[in-house]
Amino acid sequence: MTFLYYFLLFLHFVGWAVVLGGTVTNLRTPRLAPGVLHGAITALVTGVLMVGVAEAALDADLNHMKIGVKLVVAAVIVTLTVIASRRKEPSRALLGAIAGLTTLNIALAALWR
Questions:
Q1: Total domain count for the chain?
Q2: Which of 10, 19, 31, 54 is the most buried (most CB within 10 A)?
């Protein structure tokens, strides 16, 4: 199960990288890169699966407050990417919010112990 956990972690990182890279590179010409929505959904789903694997199989001691905050931020990111993907030209503020919240989620993961 440890392999599964780290494989999900890898996919989680790839998902967030796609979201952050796809929004930051398109801030100047406001448009949403094609993979950003899929990256956000991938990151959200793999994050939930990682918590499930850690709780059930790895018997890890998890910080549920941190997980809850990260889940809410990830859900907002997915919602904003859905809104941006439905618009022909999303605003820079919307793309900036996606990039900022993604950076916040990464910072929460790295800095909150």
A1: 1
A2: 19
